[in-house]
Amino acid sequence: MTDLYTSQRAMRRMRKQAMDRGVVAVLDVGTSKIACLVLRFDGPEKFRASEGVGSLAGQSSFRVIGAATTRSRGVHFGEIDTMQETERAIRTAVQAAQKMGNVRVDHVIATFAGARPRSYGLDGQIELADNAVTDGDVARVLAACTVPDFGDAREVLHAQPVNFAIDHRSGLADPRGQMGNRLAADMHLLTVDRSVLENLLYCIKRCDLELAGVASSAYVSGISALVEDEQELGSACIDLGGGATGISIFIKKHMIYADSVRIGGEHISLDISKGLQIPLATAERIKTFYGGVVATGMDDREIIEIGGDTGDWEHDRRTVSRAELIGIMRPRVEEILEEVRTRLDAAGFDHLPAQQIVLTGGGSQIPGLDGLASRILGQQVRLGRPLRVQGLPQAATGPAFASAVGLCLFAAHPQDEWWDFDIPADGYPARSFKRAVKWFKENW
């Protein structure tokens, strides 16, 4: 992964080739499930040059022809823990989706939730040689952004221009073709743990698949769960997954901050399992059917049969009231929301105009969660569902599939990133990139 710029450009070319052939798969590698959607692209409007540097929202020329999910294995905190188990689960999901779509898939675009994401806001400016801004000028101004030393153990996952200014006019989505003397740019840089990313790439390679792109789960969940006005005015998407909770903040249709909390729905199930001394699978079932976070007077009288097959008659006929179950679940949910509030405060979320918060992901379906989140986070909170995508099965339209649907939109209309521009070799922001390009030129 030393030649980051080159490998990301290669993945973009690979994605374009896959879309030209008409079929590409998206893969959501999560802690609780692995989802695979096979997309078929129709029509010539796959890459419109007029889209430029801007939002990827809008009508997409694809439909879902295959969908499959399988229980995730070997993934903890959104990161691959056991390579062989995860490889087997990915193969199962991809093969089932291929069978449903009756096509063979060679290229996948993947998303993952963990890897301790960290956001940086960068800026740079250049003098314009000609008065009109060209692609080369955009490349030069992005190269002029000062990249912090984020360490050898980290890797850049997203590097997106979020704002341009020409002379004293700011807030430009696409400056190309406009006249001026000085061009400035603001860029959002998202870094993740290199080892986590390399494990994912290696696992997909072991599955005999070519990686045509990779994205942060927090980012793609925000794309699918936030409506256009929320992306424009400043909103946060909280993606409550199985092993990690992703946080992303959007304004002017660009992600400006991302983070994750290493606690998720699986930890709530573990609390129930330990508290009631029952198997994890039983705890998951009880959480799904009877869970909640707000107790009422009726909950003391609602009795839940735990069941079991240990052979001990007394043990297998145990019951618990719903109020007791809520008493186990609520502290962990409060802990997740308190951590989220800490991250949002650190990001300066209270300075944004709208401050809408949208909850999505499988964990957001716990009854009463939106009311509790509104009290703890102190903002307007709503439950979000992913956008409707043509051909998506009814079973895959719930909040748990927000990141998978967002990845479809990311595949069809990718936002321009730093590596989409031909940045001159001597203008690469970091020394390691200069070394990588020098090596690439000498050896190829």
UniProtKB/TrEMBL annotation:
SMART domains: FtsA. SUPFAM superfamilies: Actin-like ATPase domain (SSF53067). GO terms for cellular component: cell division site; cytoplasmic side of plasma membrane. GO terms for biological process: FtsZ-dependent cytokinesis. It holds the Pfam family FtsA. Belongs to the FtsA/MreB family. Self-interacts. Interacts with FtsZ. This is Cell division protein FtsA. The lineage of its organism: Bacteria, Pseudomonadati, Pseudomonadota, Alphaproteobacteria, Rhodobacterales.
